[in-house]
Amino acid sequence: MLTEACTLLLSxxxxxxxxxxxxxxxxxxxxxxxxxxxxxxxxIVNPEFNYNIEGWKAFGEGKIEERISxxxxxxxxxxxxxxxxDSLSQKVQVEEGKIYSFSASVQVSxxxxxxxxxxxxxNGDGVCGGDVVAEEGCWTLLRGGIVANFTSPVEIxxxxxxxxxxxxxxxxxxxxxxxxxxxxNQDKSINEVRKSKVRLxxxxxxxxxxxxxxxxxxxxxxxxxxxxxxxxxxxxxxDYQNWFASRFKWTTFTNEMKWYSTEKxxxxxxxxxxxxxxxxxxxxxxxxxGHNVFWDDPKYQPDWVKSLSPExxxxxxxxxxxxVVCRYRGQLIAWDVMNENVxxxxxxxxxxxxxxxxxYSIAQQLDPDTVMFMNEYNTIEYSEDKNSSAANYKKxxxxxxxxxxxxxxxxxxxxxxxxxxxxPNLAYMRSVLDMLGATGLPIWLTEVDVGKGPNQAQYxxxxxxxxxxxxxxxxxxxxxxxxxAGFNVTTLADKDFKNTPSGDVVDKLIDEWNSGTQEITTDxxxxxxxxxxxxxxxxxxxxxxxxxxxxxSLSVTQAEPHxxxxxxxxx
Length: 571
What we know:
CATH topology of the largest domain: TIM Barrel
Signal peptide: 1-23
Pfam families: CBM_4_9, Glyco_hydro_10
CATH superfamily of the largest domain: Glycosidases
Domain GH10: 211-509
Strand content: 25-35%
Strand order of the largest sheet: 13-14-15-16-17-18-20-21
Mean pLDDT: 93
Family: Belongs to the glycosyl hydrolase 10 (cellulase F) family.
Largest sheet: 8 strands, parallel, barrel
GO molecular function, one term: endo-1,4-beta-xylanase activity
Number of domains: 3
Radius of gyration: 27 Å
């Protein structure tokens, strides 16, 4: 049933949807001086161009030349370009199994252009290692990288589609890491980002310290959302219900809230399945991400929508957003508002260029306390899909945020994470998270799975660790589950709900990213000190001499580190 506020907004939405003003650009930041080469340039020869073009050569038909800024800084310019890849290059040797982190300061001679780094192998294959929107008049950090699947020479070069612009480069770095070093960096980040040090003191009611007191610290809830997709089988399969509720407290319905599920016939809405899934989730303390209000892919519209005129679509879309957002207002933690609108543009083609931006504005006004996400695939998982590269994702996000009225939009960055069966490019994934994380908006990995293959479980763990260890990532939802519920890409449990190797990985990480129950004895001053994962805790101190105890609740957060938590035992 619609709330009064949503009902009052309905007539306004009909007028608003598809008729907005043009968006203006948002404020952008880049640097007057290039950053120093990271890791001293790593294995790059002459990374700061202090020795003219030594170690570098022109790639393609263009030219390269050294220039010096007014401040005396040397940099290289690729000019007289005729093809996107006309630039400069350097050959390096990569070793099988190592992860290579890349960075460079880039600038273009005019306007704003996407500049990409490409790793070209001897067989002619080129792998995009990362991209960024470079600007005239200031330096932007381009980050990326590759994972070497074999030992080979590789040529590093740069691309920009607009050949009339010059590409300016400085302070190039390519740093190799072993997988052990990469994992060590992840673990260090997890300890810094996901945990906080807590100091407890147990005292008598008189505040006299109690030494040698046994203290039990039990984590009862994690603050980091690590969840799993859910589908309609949850309503009819008790084993699926038990399997899910015993593991996960965050979810996304894989299909059940989508327009083609709730209004298969025009004018006949049916939310029965979605409503019952919401009820099940709420009864089990499971938070829900809404997925999705609209899908910009023409293939995934309700059949009847595909034949509507633009005016008819405008009316139908206004009814849809009002219906679904108002129905679940205040019950969801997020909405994927316009799904996959970097790849597709069904609503833009039919309702105008601002269709996405307007839908976010409307959804926020209908449900003001819910975070509104862009949700896109291939941004972290496949660098060769340039349509949804980090630079293009950010450009679309800027369009939405710059639309009149959207400056204070509660926006979120949704990265689906449908990885293939091959080795994930963790360096590229991290560079994307770095770039999009610099916006300050929360990032969620929203639909993580890994294709079938002999190393599926290993690669799933690598992806999940990379996401969890990154400070900009505020939640992870996997689109995985038991075979009995139809999850056949990344299956966590067989038809009898026995774990697969991928299921073992997920259970291991759930345990690893939880402090569990710890029992510690206080020192001579009644203190204990330890590092705990962010979450809610129950702390019990027992004085066996007086046979008394006390229990307190504690919430451990990154934002509010705890100096000393007092636990008083009456004696």
